[in-house]
Amino acid sequence: MNILGIETSCDETAISIIETFGTFPNDFDIKIRANLVLSQIALHQKYGGVFPSLAKREHSKNLVPLFKQALETAELLVTKEKVHLETPQLEDLKSLLIREPEMWEQFEKEILKIEKPKIDAIAVTMGPGLEPALWTGINFARALSAFWKIPILPINHMEGHIFSSLLKEKKGLRSFTQKSNDGTSNEITATKQEKFSAYKLESIKFPAIALLVSGGHTELVLAQNWFEYKVIGATRDDAVGEAFDKVARILGLPYPGGPEISRLAKILRDSLSDLKNSESRNNPIGIKLPRPMINSNDYDFSFSGIKTAVLYMVKKIPELTNEIKNEIALEFENAVVETLVKKTTKAVLDKNALSLIAGGGVIANRKLRDELEKMTKETKIELFVPIISHSTDNALMIALACGARIEKYGLTKERGDIIASGSLTIDGKK
Ligand code: KG4
Ligand code: ZN
């Protein structure tokens, strides 16, 4: 089955096309035919964070060309003479993109010239995220769906992050038996597969704990089975990625702050790594930040206090030298990672988890990965993390979650009525 994924929840416009094979969950293989991410980071940098109306405008402008490029990469692009649509049909399509006039212009010019591609389902992020940004992806998906009569499935962005962590690159390629819609099967030749990366879905043991850490979320989720989620803990104020971004801004570092802070922390950590004394290794100049809620008897987090502590500290420092910046970065990273790992360990032990799934943009952080690896070795459970390039937002994870859902629940009805939900939760609770 071929699935188109569309992701526009924040500042990445992303389109992916995957092909799925086999049976979910134990023998589920994935071929990535296209996985394109157009980052708007450079545009948002001057605001020090994501500016929603700018994000919406950029998604609107970029979705059609990016989609066309994805079809081409996936070898699914066939162009023809522009189809002539009768006025009512054209007006129907246009009405779906009434809020995105620029996208409609491109849609009419480009998409009406494309032969219906071999895509069985469209997966689109419906939330959580910035609503104006989410709407652009949803409206685009609805227009494609209406034009080509392809069903749409709305996907939760955080579930996407979970699936991103469960993708494992296949070593040896074998020939797949493709399941087609009518139940007949046909062999795909090995040469064809080797052009695209082949992955499989990890088989995980339940109960599982998912630690989801991104720019908008910090959550501990208990999964008793596939798609059965319960949020057992969350941040009470800033998300961890947001804290990285805000501290970076205080230190005069560019957006997004996560990679910058970890880069500075690494400089100091590496230069101190041969020191024996661990106290002096972590704290050579003596900066100490709080670890809010680290010992509280729940699974919640709080990061705004650490950020405020950095702000007051920086105000008192006459000159913010590179050495001091490195030290603040190191201590901040240590404080955040310690807190995340402590609460995650508590959740793993209390819930007798057999697997830990860690996902979201902040899981690109090396220190966090290392500490989670250590912890899961000690607790003897399995850890699943995405490869670095699949950690931050992408549409592959959206297509993948959709593929798994279709395998489990089937693709029964067309969803033309999807609405964006900025505060969508993974367990359906407010
Ligand atoms: O999942 P994501 O791409 O977008 C959201 O859904 O929010 O996460 C983006 C967040 C940003 O706050 C960014 O600073 C953070 O992930 N991030 C990192 C690292 N790379 C990205 N945080 C810490 N260390 C990193 N290496
Ligand atoms: Zn994300």
What does this structure look like?
The chain has 430 residues and is α/β, with parallel strands linked by helices. Helix content is 41%, strand content 20%. It has a seven-stranded mixed β-sheet with strand order 5-4-1-2-3-9-6, with helices on both faces. A five-stranded mixed β-sheet has the order 12-11-10-13-14, sandwiched between helices. A two-stranded antiparallel ribbon has the order 7-8. Helix 2 packs parallel to helix 5 and helix 6 crosses helix 14. It starts with a strand and ends in a 21-residue tail after the last helix. The structure holds 5'-O-[(R)-(carboxyoxy)(hydroxy)phosphoryl]adenosine and zinc ion. Zinc ion (ZN) binds next to helix 6.
List bound small molecules. 5'-O-[(R)-(carboxyoxy)(hydroxy)phosphoryl]adenosine, zinc ion
| Main beta-sheet annotation | 7 strands, mixed
**Average pLDDT number:** 90
First-residue to last-residue Cα separation: 34 Å
Shape: globular
Alpha-carbon Rg, integer = 23 Å
Portion of residues in beta strands equals 15-25%
